[in-house]
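User: Sequence in, structure out. Go.
Assistant: Echoing your sequence, followed by the structure tokens.
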Amino acid sequence: MQTAIPLILPFSTRLTKVDFPKFNGENVKGWLYKCDQFFSLDNTSSAVKVKLVAIHLEGKALQWHHALIKSRLTTEPMNWEDYAKAVAGRFGPAFDDPMSELMSLKQTGSVMDYMDQFENILTRVDLTEEYKVSCFITGLEYETQMHVRMFHPTTVQQAANLAKLFESVREYKHSKYSRNKNRFSKPSTYGQSQLRPATPSMALPSKQSLVHPSMPLPSKSRNMPILDKPPKVYRTAEMAERRARGLCMFCDEPFTPGHQLKHKKAQLYVVELNEGEEKDNNVEECIGDETIGPCIFVNAITGNSHFQTMRTTGYYNKQPLQILIDSGSTHNFVDEQVVKKLGCKAVAIKPMAVFVADGNKVFVTAICKKFSWQIQSTTFTTDCMVLPLGFCDVVSGIQWLSTLGPIVWDFQQLKMEFKVEGKKHVLRGATASKLKHADGKQLSKSLLQGGQSALLQLCPLGDNSNMVTSSLFSIFAEHSALPEAVEQLLNKYASLFDEPGGLPPYREGFDHRIPMEPGALPVNKRPYRYPSLQKTIIEKLMNEMLD
């Protein structure tokens, strides 16, 4: 007696006809889920599930099914559970760990994209609703995550709705900020009447105007004309060439003290809103919100003199330091080569932008905590940022000057007076050496004594003038007998002119002795007992100390 196989027809509902899902080897988990739903809806018996599936296979999936059936050693029909595992093993991923994927999932795009990825992984694991909510919130961006946690959602859907609302608000604020930024940063599109220099009779606006935050308020020359041409930005090589030639950074004229006054321009701008524009109630005061970085004038880097600076000499453990006292610098700086030479400890910090007076910006990555130096037997301690200065060792700015109290400063005489702990200090700035005129006798004497000299010749240039060139040759002369008075002086104080054979005499503050422990014996270990590598290093160190 043969058992009739029921005829498989597409399952029909009251509204539509449901076809069995086809499979070609792609998205195996989604296809298996559809098969289970169809079998549950159609009440399909276990005996015909695999045969029903085989009818709807295509491509490589059908080839695999045919090979699987032929490789079976039994003729009994295969049950659906074993067949589903075989299909998932053949067409599924090599390593499937949905829990690990769920824990490592992070939002990188929009909330909708994150929800799609989260739900795709969620279909492969069985979790409680509380754990689902925790995993969903943990994967959100930090700002969105904190906003969602504030409302304590109990379901994934509630958390997703809160995240989408916060994303919409943030996008709205960003678009409004971009619109206001374009409005204020491009005043020329509003016409000539939108941007104008502030005059003394103009009152500062409160809500309908905005003062540019990146420009300080000038005390004078508020009604000067505004230059439409932006300042030119030079490359590093171009700027180095202009510094070498001594040219101004804003024009082609030579830079001299006071030359920057020619380029002084108005720095207070007022932007007024049109009457027809929507007033933005969210615009806040911008003055004082922007963090101003440390400022150091360009003369501290290029070595040029400035009427707000004064050079003096200090000491760090008896090592002389060239200190530039600069009232235009906000912070203190120390040259990086000086830090290495003195062996100071530099602490790494987060890169900080330092704005130079010529418009450039350099970055500071280290700072010397409690850097000390001595001036007139008084020790000063302050923090100094490490920066390649080149033409001075230390720059003392307002950070150090503010600790001195009242200061009397005469820039004409390069004289500075202040009191520290009741002791009065008077600092005098070093003046630049000037060229001196030397006659032939003085020049000959200098050459005989081994001095270095240079000859410069100035002559007119013209069509009818003949240029006469001159040359300076080396002059050698035999040592002549010294005058009798000099010979007597040398013989009288012969001990002073003899070649030193011991330590210099003791002076206050300079003790040349090397104190040793009483009864200490010298090291009695011969160099040849060291390995060759150590011997080479020891000899190198000894030669360096002797030199």
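User: And one key feature?
Assistant: The longest strand covers residues 361-375.
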